[in-house]
Amino acid sequence: MSKNEVRVRFAPSPTGPLHIGGVRTALYNYLFARKNNGKFLLRIEDTDQNRLINGAEKYIIDSLKWCKIEIDEGVSIGGEFGPYKQSQRKDIYKKYVFNLIKNNKAYYAFDSNEELNTMRSNLKKEGKAAPQYNSISRSRMKNSLTLSSKEVEERLKRGDKYVIRILIPRNQEIKFKDEIRGWVSVNSSSIDDKVLYKSDGMPTYHLANVVDDYLMKISHVIRGEEWLPSAPLHILLYQYLGWETETPNFAHLPLILRPDGQGKLSKRDGDKYGFPVFPISWDQNDKNFRGYKEFGFSPDAFNNMLALLGWNPGNNNEIFNMNELIENFSLGRVNKAGAKFDFKKTVWFNEQHLKKMSGEEIIKNFDSGLLKSFKREYLISVANLIKERAKFVNEVEVEGKYFFEKPKIYDEKLIKKKWNDDNKFLIKELLFEITNIEVFSANNISKCFNDFLNKKNLNFGEIMPILRVIVSGIKFGPPLNEIFFLLGKKEIISRIKFALKNI
Ligand code: GLU
């Protein structure tokens, strides 16, 4: 591995299904890795054991798979820096946190919840907006900075519960460059002495995250904006642990906002707005949440939509497949401002990708009965014709139903309005012309229609819609000559004759 290799990680906590914001973080990491010939890692951050949700880890892996985001190293794959699940790395963190204590960069704190609450409410009473355990308040609390070393030793020996907190310096500027936001500068006095480790042997997110990024040689930390406030603490941890020169580059991604722009799109918003917020289906408490997959979206369209929620390619192109996204992606073109989610636009992306899908690809979604009953070439031609008018792949088979069976019902309104004796007579005459077409090609069929309309001095709208309905049952569809061509002369004649006799 070269020193400059790009290594990024997606580090979700398995506390529920991945929501589309999480998938976008994974996608940007993946695009960045591929673009730079780097590696994409999946690390499961499960240090908060109380919040684990059964099935969430599998869900994350299945979702990435559906999105065609390939994991190079990590949970489910392995790799030379494993294990990649934090609960299996407990022993690793211990060494580092005790090192911090030894170097006076962290300290033991023995305060009970009650004592912490009292401290916080006292600070609130004093007018502090965000009461913190910090350089001032810590001097009034029960920790290894205020207690005698003898007492600390005794407490530890006795097995008293403790946490280890980072010692944040007072009034120090912490500065780092974010790839998306530019320079970020924070005064250390606004940072809490965060808990790094608990007496049950579990590290907290902050410690585990930094230690793992270092040990796994992560070059770029690309994650959601909600982690921006934690970044200065992480920068400080790199310094405290003596890894300053190995500090990764940071990029904090903008939020995905609700359609009305009012706040972050949450997992609950799916119910509220009636669109999916999860990539694939998720079951919880007897409730099923349909994902984009089940809704009929293609992974390509889903990725395309997600990629453009926060990133712009710098030109007017909007349709990208995964390879094109990789080719064009750069962190420099990720926007700072939040991106409003737009479900209509998401459907539009799917429509565009469906048009680009090959007939072969589309018929894979057809019912197996159809695949058995019809020639492959025929099904492919139907798919290619119908895809132009469908939004979802699973609509193609339904929209093209009349290619597989004679219509059973006919558009009632049109029949009432147009299926009169005059028109029946005209259709009979047209049938005669159709029967006379020698080579039944789309061009010749179209010519036959036009000649007939000219000869009879008819407008297209006078007879063609009813012709369409008696052949296909419905008012809308692809060009009629194409439908005729695909169904074939024999079938067309039989359908028209049937209509003349029976409707
Ligand atoms: N476990 C954190 C999360 O769920 C990861 C944050 C990070 O990428 O540093 O989002």
What does this 3D model show about the protein?
There is one protein chain. By secondary structure, this protein is mainly α. It has five domains: 7-75 and 213-257, Rossmann fold (3-Layer(aba) Sandwich); 91-197, Alpha-Beta Complex (Glutamyl-tRNA Synthetase, domain 3), CATH 3.90.800.10; 267-360, Orthogonal Bundle (Glutamyl-tRNA Synthetase, domain 2), CATH 1.10.1160.10; 361-403, no CATH class; 412-502, Arc Repressor Mutant, subunit A, CATH 1.10.10.350. It contains 22 helices and 14 strands. The chain has a three-stranded parallel sheet. A three-stranded antiparallel sheet has the order 4-5-8. β2, α2 (56-66) and β3 (73-74) form a beta-alpha-beta unit. The longest helix has 16 residues, at 20-35.
Bound ions, cofactors and other small molecules, one mention each: glutamic acid
Task: Enumerate the strands of the largest sheet in spatial order, edge to edge or round the barrel.
Answer: 1-2-3
Q: What share of the residues lie within helices? A: 40-55%
Mean pLDDT: 96
Low-confidence stretches: none
> What structural class results from the helix and strand content?
mainly alpha
Shape: elongated
Count of β-strands: 14
- Provide the CATH superfamily of the largest domain: HUPs
Amount of beta strand: 5-15%
Largest sheet composition:
3 strands, parallel
**How big is the Rg?**
32 Å
- The name CATH uses for the topology of the largest domain is Rossmann fold
The span between the termini is 75 Å
CATH domain class of the largest domain = Alpha Beta
Total helical segments: 22
